[in-house]
Design a protein that fits this description.
This protein has 167 residues and is an alpha+beta fold. It has three helices and seven strands.
């Protein structure tokens, strides 16, 4: 799907992007995998609750069903949060960061590429702990859903693109 260029003006003129990125949280469990996992949990719950039912402790069946329902709701929420993303658009005239949460609400921040700086929070043992765009008093954290190594790679690419945009 082609991305909309936020740097186009009403007159049809367009500033070409130097760098664009869309950052999404990683989810390793597919819908089929979720169905298999819930089926397995349900089967284990049923097998373990049958002896309780046979000795007259039938409420255990309800509690096992409640456990399965809670696991399902937790995974459903987890998968819903995967709809969140961040977009970064950089041209020679502006740097736009758009963060959209899992409910579809978005926040935007615009920076001047000549004045913005990318701050990295580095840990000697663990690597990149955080990225923040700073311009004056405006601060925006970036790429929080990425792992440390991926965040470092993203920071290197964005820093290189910022240097290119400043030339």
């Amino acid at each position: 799907m082609p991305q909309h260029n936020p740097f186009s003006d009403a007159g049809g003129g367009e500033e070409p992007p130097v760098f664009t990125a869309r950052i999404t949280p990683h989810r390793s469990l597919s819908q089929r995998g979720l169905a298999l996992l819930l089926g397995f949990i349900g089967a284990v719950g049923l097998v373990t609750s049958i002896p309780f039912y046979l000795v007259g402790a039938w409420p255990v069946l309800g509690f096992m069903g409640l456990d399965i329902l809670l696991v399902y709701l937790a995974f459903r929420y987890h998968n819903a949060t995967a709809r969140a993303y961040e977009e970064v658009f950089l041209s020679r005239i502006a740097l736009l960061v758009r963060a959209v949460n899992w409910r579809g609400q978005s926040r935007e921040a615009t920076f001047n590429p000549l004045w913005v700086r990318l701050e990295r929070e580095e840990h000697p043992e663990f690597g990149n702990e955080g990225l923040t765009l700073v311009q004056g008093r405006q601060r925006v954290e970036l790429a929080q859903c990425l792992g440390r190594e991926e965040r470092g790679d993203f920071a290197d690419a964005l820093q290189s693109a910022l240097h290119q945009a400043r030339r």
